[in-house]
Design a protein that fits this description.
The chain is an alpha/beta fold. It is built from 14 helices and 29 strands. The strands form 6 sheets. Strands 16, 17, 18, 19, 21, 23, 25, 28 and 29 form a 9-stranded mixed beta sheet that branches. It has a 7-stranded mixed beta sheet with strand order 2-1-12-6-7-9-3, with no helix packed on it. A hairpin with a 2-residue loop joins β28 and β29. The termini are far apart. About 40% of the residues are buried.
Length: about 500
Amino acid sequence: MTHVPARPGKIIAVHLNYAGRIAERGRRPEFPSYFLKPATSVAATGEVLERPAGTELLGFEGEIALIVGRRARRVSPDTAWSHVAGVTAANDFGVYDLRWADRGSNLRAKGGDGFTPLGPAVLDAAGLDPGALRVRTWVNGSLAQNATTAELAFPFAQLIADLSQLITLEPDDVVLTGTPAGASVVVPGDVVEVEVDVPGGPSTGRLTTRIVQDTSVLPGYSAGPRVDDQQRAEAWGSRDAAGLEPDFRLTAELRETLAAVSTATLSAQLRKRGYNEMTIDGLTPTRPAAKVVGRARTLRFIAFRDDLFAAAGGGYNAQKRAFDSLRAGDVLVIEARGERGTGTVGDILALRAQTLGAAAIITDGGVRDYATVAALDLPVYTAGPHPAVLGRRHVPWDVDVTVSCGGAAVQPGDVIVGDADGIVVIPPSLAEEVAAAAAEQEREEAFIARQVAAGAAVDGLYPMNAAWLARYQQERPGGSSPTDNQERPGGSSPTDNESSPS
């Protein structure tokens, strides 16, 4: 194979494949998924690409393109690579502004004329190790992407074999194999270059595309550009890169503040703000003395049904994916509908969570291998032990969706705090405010407790009247006093007729 097909029969692109990109997107697919690009989107090196009028988010994605050399129909992974004739560089351009109109197909968002540059040279597949290739992308001379095929979730042979089960691959078809981390946005005037090579060996040379502005406005009968901050963040790669306010982060300082206050105090502060159903109830911790602070990840089980369990219960199911994707500090919250008549987690998966650094597991269902799980360093909140496997009552169904657990709604990313009193769910938008108010409330209550221990009556002290509050402010850690118009964090405002301290 010495040429790039000017008009491939099919261009099939993979959504997610590189570990770095999967980490950026925050979701790991169980199987590869694909979309089609029209043959008219192919362009050669050195050609210009017009950013459609009215759009702002033209994204680049440097990729390795496989060029099919022999017809492939229901081939196996062992023989699939022999059906690939060559490898070249590709750039999978797309306009995020148009995704809303055809998000499933990506046809207009990624199928425009010139949106699939290929080339310049083709490497002979017969002489290549598909697991030892590298793809790099430069924008205006600065390296933006750099990855090797060692980090692929789905090797090239698997892609060819998988596609060939239902779709016949023919000579000159092109398969785009996914982009690594670092894909972002380019603007008119930018120059994008992509190169595929064997480090220290043969190279495709740099595939060069210059971005220009199209002035032709889409007519009223076509879906026009539409963009929001979520699209901006996805296009640029992060909210920070897009110039947006950063996503909420559970900083070490905030984590320390939350760990120092009780869930009872946090619950009171949430209630003051109108949040009355923010506790996960009815569960018992394996480590009551442990304090849990982390961000929620979620797993949802649905009620058992034979056909659904046959389809979704085996293999690398949602339960296994949820545990495998945990990161340090995550709290896995499991919706089991309060059904405790079977296990929702056992010793192996609990050990996996502990090894990955998870902060806790919370399930309103049962736990198998309870004694072994309870002996782990990982806190587990559960409705109780049960020896049965999940297939008795549950089907593992969804990961990282909104769930109900112990009577509370929990969304991925919520802040979870647990102790011997129970478990509190805090919306991220309230976490800083609630933590600060809870810390102040506990300082205030510690002061009140000292006065009670010294013999003071609770009348006028709990809650504090104006005189007690003035005394507290004088003794407050740091010696600082709230301003006159600041609301008291720990209770109601003092009144003129409240008694003074003795």
